[in-house]
Design goal:
By secondary structure, the protein is of the alpha+beta class. It has a single domain, classed as Cytochrome p450 (Orthogonal Bundle). It is 49% helix and 8% strand. It has 17 helices and 9 strands. The strands form 3 sheets. A 4-stranded mixed β-sheet has the order 1-2-7-4. A 3-stranded antiparallel β-sheet has the order 3-9-8. A two-stranded antiparallel sheet has the order 5-6. A hairpin with a 2-residue loop joins strand 5 and strand 6. Helix 7 packs antiparallel against helix 8 and helix 9 packs across helix 11. The chain binds protoporphyrin IX containing FE and 2-acetamido-2-deoxy-beta-D-glucopyranose (NAG). Protoporphyrin IX containing FE binds next to helix 13 and helix 17.
Length: 538
């Protein structure tokens, strides 16, 4: 049987080709006209001089250059194009700053033009459309909350009041390690440390633990992890409007779901607080009210008619979410990186242990109050945050046209300050890739001035800098030092399953923060027998 000629596909294709050709011609004419008009239009204005930029693709711009670890991709680009570069991510203009000098320009000299953060879809969904505190535009609400953070919520007094809570949590962490060491088993430090820090934040925020070794209180932690994952997911819809319509990554459904779960949980906890507060008010004459947690402070302010700004319930819930997301992963990752470095650098480990033995002795556990007397321990944390800043990029938004380093920075550009790259800048750090805490010791010949972590020294910015810098730094540093100190004082650590002298692999994973690619799993060998005051724990 032969094919009837009239259904041969060729004429159809020829027709389609002709259509396509005429379409292409039309399109070309259109494009050329558009470009011509645009050039004329731009010529008539003063020339905008943007920082250097690599070649870009249509629509994507430079999105394809990012990869799963943006701080590393930005760093590579900066070695080729310099410490100030401009990128277009989808339709968003971005500036990347990668050196201490450029960071200082943005964070100090032009601070007021870069004190807002860009909005994104996930944060909007999750914070009841308020953008909470961490993503609030620089304005009256943010200023009000910032003052509260400094004076009350995350301030010295609150931190002191909760010292016993942190001590208790450190001891239950220690107990887990001790039991593992008795059984000769490996411990998953990634899990135990995030438990530790979430319990600390959770108890300070709302007087309840959020993670038990076994059982139910894990709800808060599960929700918080889900939130962090979503905020950390690179959402194409933030950059390309096409994705906003179709949500190809399925993010908005996940957002709705997580938001709902968080809300139900927070409502329950707030109601419990409100009932307890009513009961307390009735018993006021009895005196002796307990420690006010962060939620109590916020509720007091929301009920205060004289407050400068009336806090709404959404604001309160969003703030609690902010400190969970900003505070728990970051402070659990830092001691993980520190211990990883120490396992790979046994001489540093030994030196740190000698210092603790000398200052604290072997008959009691190291405490937060010992930290000021442990300069080498502090140097280890600085060196860890230099190489592994838990939050590697600070995200800001330009709110006014300005000129930096001779380049124009247009309003609404998104600014990425790459703190990870800054900590590795060979112009500022000798052998930047080497883990050498000595560089922070006053006795070191290369130590020109004592470098602090609070954003005064632009070559080391793990907590950012300026008014938008991290308000949780003091709290975080207490927790991070205490957790690392106890791991050094109490145990010798064997990487992997405890066989031989395995090294810990130092690869980075993707995420909102800077996690290890593989969890840190190692075997603790208890060193102090009998463990001082461990019996009181068990
Ligand atoms: C090792 C632990 C931590 C690191 C490395 C870290 C780092 C940072 C960085 C780099 C920023 C952005 C700063 C900037 O843009 O200049 C930030 C912001 C923030 N951090 Fe932390 N942080 C840590 C722990 C904490 C803790 C424990 C809390 C609270 C309990 C916290 C709460 C916040 C908040 C609320 C913001 C947003 C501030 C604002 O937008 O004004 N952080 N943090
Ligand atoms: C260790 O804990 C992390 C975080 O909870 C988890 O993702 C990982 O699967 C755990 N790994 C092992 C080997 O238990």
């Amino acid at each position: 049987m032969s094919l009837p000629l009239n259904i041969s596909p060729f004429p159809l294709i020829a027709e389609a080709m002709a259509d396509l050709l005429s379409f292409c011609t039309l399109f070309l004419v259109f494009l050329l006209t558009f470009l011509l008009v645009r050039t004329i239009f731009f010529k008539s204005r003063t020339k905008v001089r943007l920082p250097p930029s690599p070649m870009s693709l249509p629509i994507l711009g430079h999105l394809h250059l990012l990869g799963p670890l943006p701080h590393q991709a930005f760093y590579k680009l900066s070695t080729a194009y310099g410490p100030l570069l401009s990128l277009r991510l989808g339709s968003v203009s971005c500036i990347v700053a990668s050196s201490p000098e450029t960071a200082k320009e943005f964070l100090k000299t032009h601070e007021l033009h870069f004190s807002s953060r860009p909005k994104n879809i996930a944060v909007g969904h999750l914070t009841y459309g308020t953008y909470g505190f961490a993503f609030a535009p620089y304005g009256p609400y943010w200023k009000f909350m910032k003052k509260l953070c400094v004076s009350e919520l995350l301030g010295g007094r609150t931190i002191d009041l909760f010292e016993p809570v942190r001590r208790e949590e450190i001891r239950s962490f220690l107990k887990v390690l001790f039991e593992k060491s008795k059984a000769g088993e490996a411990v998953n430090l990634s899990r135990e440390l995030v438990r530790l820090t979430s319990n600390i934040v959770s108890r300070m925020a709302m007087s309840q633990r959020c993670s038990e070794t076994e059982g139910e209180a894990d709800e808060v932690q599960t929700v918080v992890q889900a939130v962090a994952n979503l905020v950390g997911t690179f959402n194409l819809a933030d950059y390309i409007s096409f994705f906003r319509r179709f949500d190809l990554q399925g993010i908005s459904n996940r957002l709705k779901d997580v938001h709902k779960r968080f809300d139900v949980m927070m409502e329950r906890i707030i109601r419990e607080h409100e009932e307890a507060r009513k009961a307390k008010k009735m018993n006021k004459e009895m005196g002796g009210d307990g420690v006010r947690d962060i939620l109590d402070i916020l509720l007091d302010i929301s009920e205060d008619d004289k407050a400068e700004i009336k806090l709404r319930r959404e604001d309160i819930k969003a703030f609690i979410m902010d400190i969970f997301v900003a505070g728990t992963d970051t402070s659990s990752i830092t001691p993980q990186w520190a211990l990883s470095e120490l396992i790979n650098n046994p001489t540093v480990f030994e030196k740190a242990r000698k210092e603790i033995d000398l200052v604290v002795g072997k008959s009691r556990l190291v405490e937060e109050s010992d930290i000021p007397n442990l300069p080498y321990l502090q140097a280890i944390i600085k060196e860890t945050l230099r190489l592994h800043p838990a939050s590697p990029i600070s995200l800001r938004e330009c709110t006014q046209d300005c000129k930096i380093g001779g380049y124009d920075i247009p309003v609404n550009s998104r600014l990425f300050i790459n703190m990870w790259a800054i900590g590795r800048d060979p112009k500022h750090w000798d052998n930047p890739l080497e883990f050498r805490p000595e560089r922070f010791m006053p006795s070191d010949e290369n130590n020109r001035s004592p470098i602090d972590l609070r954003g005064q020294h632009y070559s080391l910015l793990p907590f950012g800098s300026g008014r938008r810098g991290c308000p949780g730094a003091t709290l975080a540093l207490q927790v991070v030092h205490a957790a690392l100190a106890i791991m050094i004082q109490g145990f010798t650590w064997k990487a992997g399953n405890g066989e031989g002298n395995a090294r810990v692999d130092m690869e980075e994973g993707a995420g909102l923060t800077l996690p290890r690619r593989k969890p840190l799993v190692c075997v603790p060998v208890a060193r102090l027998h009998p463990f001082p005051s461990i019996d009181a724990l068990t």
